[in-house]
Amino acid sequence: MKDISRKSVAITTPNVVYHVYPRSFRDSSGDGIGDIPGIIEKLDYLADLGVDAIWFSPFFRSPQRDQGYDISDFCDIAPEHGTMADFDRLLKEMHARGMKMILDLVLCHTSIDHPWFRGSASSRDNPKRNWYIWRDGRKPGGRKPPNNWKAMTGGPAWLYFSNTDQWVYFHFMPSQIDLNYREPDVKRTMMDIMRFWLDKGVDGFRLDLLHALYEDEQLRDNPLSWRFLPSDKSTSALFRSHKYDLNMPETYAFAVELRRLIDEYEPKRLLIGEVFGTMDELRHYYGPDSTGLHMVFLFEFTSTPFRPQRYAKLICRVEKALPAPDLPTYVFGNHDRMRLMTRLNHHTGKAKIAATMQLTLRGVPFIYYGEEIGMPNSRIKLRESRDPVGRKYAWLPAFQIKTLGFSLSRDGCRTPMQWDDGSNAGFSSNPAAVPWLPVHPAHEDVNVAAQQADPNSLWNCYRRLIALRKECSALRVGAFDLIPVGKPSKKCLAYRRTHYESTVFVYLNFSGKELRLRCPVENPDLLFSTYEERNEMLTAPDGRLILAPFEGIVFAPRPEKPPKDLTTGNVPEVN
Ligand code: NOJ
């Protein structure tokens, strides 16, 4: 592959981040639960894929009611995932391979079993009482929650404790109680926890539910909203807006404080926010003059239909709201969402188009484990769900669940990584182990080993794209411009990425029909095609470029040839 970057740039952000869900990646101990030594075994796989940063969903000590997002000790490793010595080795091995480590930091809440909460709940005058948000119930009799706030997963956002006759606030699930950031000791302690990991050398944090950190000081009732189902465009759902419990000005200010904290460290560290809201609300997390988070996840891609015009509209909106140097992060999949391959109806051609888009848009791409082989979602009955959100709705009749159009349990996208077609898909070192979630039956066909052996596989497509992105500064940091393609815009998305004098063009055919389009350059040089065997651009006799069905290509203007030495006909050597 040619190096087409004409200018070297100092880039502190990773080229590509891979998201590992530790429970499901690789089980080295043979107990059916993924662990840190298992991840270490697979680092060479990730290095070979071209990944240069990994975000780990939490592997800290936890009663695992929400698979590690309910933490009972922020500075210790859950025994089912390993030990602190394993963690130190993981970090060392990653850094030895030039990879950055991004930890999942759950600042918003603790487990209900955290000693801080146990103390806080034990009496009204416990020193930790104010670490959580306790209030009397509404009159008369205090039998009703203090206000009308709803939890993100539905139902009242308050839990009653009879021993102190007060209610405590939670935003997500009742087993995860929100910390009170208006209590200075809470803020100080959580920032010290960040320092603990930064001092160890971790390279950044993904901030869980950051937008829910502060609430209105007076805990005013939220206004009604017409929206019932949740969406990625706003936080309103279940007929409630979240005016007073999410995206508070204090949280925006805290994002800037967090940035100041990590900026004390060299080499530079990274902050990525999991925040929900309107584009306007999300914008605030970048801080005035980009002094806040480096990136926030943009979830709308996970619910956008596979149509070029819809993507074009969304990308333009993002480009306008988050111009450079701010970075967007388009989410294609994660541990809470239906898997990309299932959303695309198991169509490999479409998955290659999605991969090409993901790895050539502006911003930092995050690849969810298994996405590179097109792992599908599993169907797991709500009654058998390991996910607490799924269990919460297990009483709903099946026909009603279907009408929702989305999956209530998140287990389906969290099944064990499919390494090969053997027992347990190569997930566990112990062939007799019972994995914590059943392996998807498709593993016999859809697995890493099979796709590594096939040059035209989805895995090889991701690998070639990651390598191209690494080589090409225009793809990593270049400006983005949409290219109008006229009538075919219903079938084709085209854009240009430019960094100094390096320019590349991306053309994506979203249809099953061949397309012929005007070529934006005279002498195009093909750098990538989703059709692995393609070496040269396909052009029609009239000069138009040809895109085969579901073909995605990346090309650049062909560099001018150096002049020939007129006497010998040889190209002169450059010293
Ligand atoms: C968002 C995480 O992505 C999700 O998996 C988790 O259950 C909630 N935050 C609660 O921490």
Describe this structure in words.
This protein has 575 residues and is α/β, with parallel strands linked by helices. It folds into 3 domains: 17-110 and 184-381 and 417-461, TIM Barrel; 115-178, Oligo-1,6-glucosidase, Domain 2 (Oligo-1,6-glucosidase, domain 2); 382-414, no CATH class. The chain starts with 16 loop residues before the first strand and ends in an 18-residue tail after the last strand. It has 15 helices and 22 strands. Bound molecules: 1-deoxynojirimycin. 1-deoxynojirimycin (NOJ) binds next to loops.
Question: In brief, what are we looking at here?
Answer:
This protein has 575 residues and is an alpha/beta fold. Helix content is 24%, strand content 16%.
Coarse structural class: alpha/beta
Ligand inventory: 1-deoxynojirimycin
Shape from CA axes? Answer: globular
**pLDDT averaged residue by residue:** 93
Count of helix runs? 15
Poorly predicted ranges: 1-11, 571-575
CATH-defined architecture of the largest domain: Alpha-Beta Barrel
Helical residues, percent: 10-25%
Name of the CATH first level of the largest domain:
Alpha Beta
CATH superfamily heading of the largest domain: Glycosidases
Strand count, sense and barrel status of the largest sheet are: 8 strands, parallel
Number of domains: 3
**CATH T-level fold name of the largest domain:** TIM Barrel
Spatial gap, N to C terminus: 23 Å
Radius of gyration: 25 Å
- Residues in β-strands, percent: 15-25%
* Total strands: 22
User: Spatial order of the strands in the main sheet?
Assistant: 14-13-12-11-5-2-1-15
